UniProtKB/TrEMBL annotation:
Residues 22-149, 164-291 form the EamA domain. One of its GO terms (cellular component) is membrane. This is EamA domain-containing protein. It comes from the Eukaryota. The chain crosses the membrane at residues 20-40, 52-68, 88-113, 134-153, 159-181, 222-240, 252-271. It comes from Paramecium octaurelia. InterPro entries: EamA_dom.
Length: 302
């Protein structure tokens, strides 16, 4: 069975049960995301926009080689592509800057708050009153965030540890809004097109930031890490974006936390790092608040 046969089979599965297929896509996509972050962390990149620019440049070339005949300006969808992927690009700049100063596990747990932000944003957009339960769940998550960010931890630079955590939280908020907009793109637009827009926006935003930084870096094995970073980012995004156009994001929220599990394992096995007691308690509170809210939302929808 060739690639066309595999893609045809997957499309037939999507037509039969889009939710289950989307869940499977998300579990695979977030494993690839965990691997690409591992390549980035292993490379010890210090000039963030340079590494993001190269990642997107190589990814775009690869995608265009196979998808150059696709319609890159889908009717009534282009503005949603630009809006959602611009937000994704800005979020990535914050994320990869912040992850330099904290562990992968801390980053994954803080990024898990995106479900809370998404739910709050949807409520505000629909002009719904924020319920007492939602407010309490948000407070639980905020307490967890404070424990994870805790500047009294034994770290090399407590100030930069806080900066790193705040960058991940900013990324989480920005990309949550991007995920909400992404649903408007619809399944008719191939995920390769959505991924291409993301990388175009990354190239644009990282180029602007690189002008401000004004320096470059290179070390032995640099392009090996960039290659791994690029390949697994592209694979993860192709699959993730496809899943997010099949069903609404709230149906997939529970399964995005598979990345947290993947990363905690990778952080321990590869980097020999484990969360502090405060980090474990804070992470547990964040995940508890998120899952409690998701369960309540599912129950309210009947």
């Amino acid at each position: 069975m060739g690639l066309s046969g595999i893609f045809g089979y997957l499309k037939s599965l999507e037509a039969k049960n889009s939710l289950h297929v989307a869940i499977g896509y998300i579990l695979v996509a977030y494993f690839f995301h965990a691997v690409q972050i591992t390549f980035y962390k292993s490379g010890h990149f210090t000039v963030v926009p340079q590494s993001l620019f190269l990642r997107s440049f190589f990814s775009l070339i690869f995608i265009f080689m196979f998808q150059y005949k696709e319609n890159y300006y889908p009717k009534n969808r282009t503005r949603y592509l630009v809006q959602s992927q611009t937000l994704g690009a800005f979020g990535s700049l914050f994320y990869f800057y912040g992850i330099n100063f904290i562990s992968l596990s801390e980053g994954a747990i803080l990024f898990a708050t995106n479900s809370i932000w998404s739910q709050l944003m949807v409520s505000l957009m629909n002009r719904e009153r924020i319920t007492k339960s939602r407010f309490i769940n948000s407070i639980i998550c905020i307490i967890g965030i404070v424990l994870v960010v805790n500047p009294t931890l034994t770290v090399d630079d407590p100030v930069m540890h806080i900066v790193g955590c705040l960058c991940i939280l900013i990324c989480s908020v920005i990309q949550s809004l991007g995920f909400i907009i992404m649903k408007k793109i619809g399944p008719e637009v191939p995920s390769t097109i959505t991924t291409s827009y993301f990388h175009i926006m990354i190239i644009f935003t990282s180029s602007l930031q690189q002008q401000y930084i004004g320096r470059f870096e290179y070390f032995d094995g640099y392009y090996k890490y960039i290659a791994g970073f690029s390949i697994f980012t592209m694979l993860g995004q192709l699959i993730q974006f496809r899943a997010q156009t099949l069903v609404t994001y709230d149906k997939l929220c529970n399964y995005t936390y598979s990345q947290t599990l993947y990363i905690i394992i990778i952080d321990y096995v590869i980097f020999n790092k484990i969360l502090s007691l405060n980090g474990m308690i804070g992470g547990s509170l964040i995940l508890f608040g998120v899952f409690k809210q998701l369960a309540e939302d599912k129950k309210s929808r009947g």
